[in-house]
Amino acid sequence: MIIGGLQKFSVLDYPGYLSAIVFTQGCNFRCQFCYNPMLVWPNQVGKSKYARDIEQQKDHPKITEDDLFVFLHSRIGKLDAIVITGGEPCLQKDLPKFIAKIKKLGFLVKLDTNGSYPETLTKLIKEKLIDYIAMDLKAPAEKYEIVTEARLDFDKIKKSVKIIMQSGLPHEFRTTVVPGLLDKNDIAEMGKIIEGARAWYLQGFKSAVDLINQDLKGKVPYNTRQMQEMAEVGKKYVKKCEVR
Fold first, then answer.
1. pLDDT, tens digit, for every residue of 139-155?
2. Are 236 and 194 in contact (CB under 8 A)?
3. Ordered alpha helix ranges (H), the chain
4. What letter does residue 158 receive in the DSSP assignment?
5. What average pLDDT does the segment 90-101 reach?
6. Cα(77)–Cα(37) distance, rounded to whole angstroms?
């Protein structure tokens, strides 16, 4: 596993449980609003057209897999769960083996994914390696490549949505709402894709940090009223739609 970083404690990322967060390096998307360029652009991954002097950017601090498991052994009985996020974890070919080692220690596992690897999701669910799934839904179909700055097969996104919703596992979908990229009409179109889902969280984007698209830095996000209005649209399609 290519591990980009570790957050040793969180009370928020796995609902109802104390967790640690493992960040994997590398992503097949270049979402314009992404605020983790150090994870998206490890040395072995291609560069976005928005990259500026990437060679001079510092990588996210790396830890070895052995170091990680020393830490995890020390947290048995103290933490409940491990969240695996990225980047995009499903890029890692040894992800199933990695998660199996975590499960053997007795931890619950939550996976954060962009949904572009439905075959991997199927394998992880079938082998009972994950306990909670969070998928980022980026945009309606016609805007997906604009928002993600990536060529993709949108059918794979729809397939992942179906797999997750039929898995029987606790799950959530998440959307970062950026003015100029998404609006209320887009929320309605996206709601149709995940209609009937358990939970959908709309997130304001962070504009005061380094972003993939530096043109978005400092851009004024939607205000609370506007975000709530979008959540009301989302509630027409899913069991719960809230603003984070």
1. 999 999 999 999 999 99
2. no
3. 37-40, 65-74, 95-104, 118-126, 144-148, 154-166, 184-193, 224-234
4. H
5. 96
6. 34
